[in-house]
Amino acid sequence: MDKPTEERLRVAVKIARAAGDIQRDRYETPLEIQTKSVDIDLVTEVDRACEGLAVAKIEEMFPEDSILAEEGGGTNRKNSTWRWIIDPLDGTTNYAHGYPRFCISIGIEREKKRTLAVIYDPLMDELYHAIRGGGSFRNNLKISVSRESLMERSLLATGFAYDQKRSRRENVEYFAAFLKTARAMRRDGSAALDLCYVASGRLDGFWELKLSPWDVAAGYLLVEEAGGRISNHSGGAAFDSGREVVASNGIIHDNMLKVISTVHV
Q1: What is the dihedral of CA 91, 94, 100, 105, to 10 degrees?
Q2: Which tens digit of pLDDT belongs to each residue from 68-95?
Q3: 118, 142, 166: which is the final residue of a domain?
Q4: Does the chain have fewer CB atoms within 10 Å around its N or its C terminus?
C-alpha cells in the first residue's frame, strides 16, 4: 500500500470512529426526523452531523479529492484522482426507531477504481475495512466469505426500495422466489452491513434493487476482497450506481441468478 492510499485509509478509519461516537451517543434519544423523496425516506440531524464531520475532515486533509455524500455535502471535483463516496448513516429508518442495525459507510475510488472501504457498526464496535488487492478485515482480522454450496442451506438477505408503494418493479416477487429455495431470509435495513456480512461469511448471499452509490461503494470492495462475487441481476458487471446487485460467496452465485431469472416483474 503506497503512502497516499495509507493516509486515506487512516483518515477514513478516524472519520468512521468519530461518526460512530455521534451515532452511539444519540442512539435512542429524541431526534428531529424529516423526510426526503417519499414519506418513508428519512433523514435526521445525526445523518447531517456525521456527514458534516466527514466532509470537513476530508476537505481539511485532502482538499483536491472529490466527495459524493448522500445528504449533498462535499464537492464533486471531476478531474480529481480520488473520490470519497459516503453514507453517513446507513440504516436511518432503523436508527430513528431504535432498531440496532446501522453504520457509516465510506468507499474511496482512485482513478475510478474501488480502492478502499471502511464500514463501522458502532453498537457492535465492528470496523470493517478492505484494500484493493490486500484483502478484507473486521477489527483488523482477515475475513472471508462462506463456503456454503447449497441454496437450501444458505442464509440470504435483501432490502426494499423507498418507492416500493408506487413502483411496478419491486422486490416482493424476488423475495417470494428466494423464500422457497433458501434456508432462511433476513431483511435488516442496512445494505452496507448486509454486504459486510456476506464478506465475513455471516450471510451466504444478498440481492437488492434500486440502491445508490453510497450504499454499495464500500461493500462491493469488501465482498470482492473477501473472495466473493458481485454482479447485476443478469450476471454481468455490477453497476456502481447500485441499481441491481447480487453479492455472494461466489459458489451459490449462479444459483441465485437462476432464481432471479424465474421472476418476471
Answers
A1: 10
A2: 999 888 898 989 999 999 999 999 999 9
A3: 142
A4: C
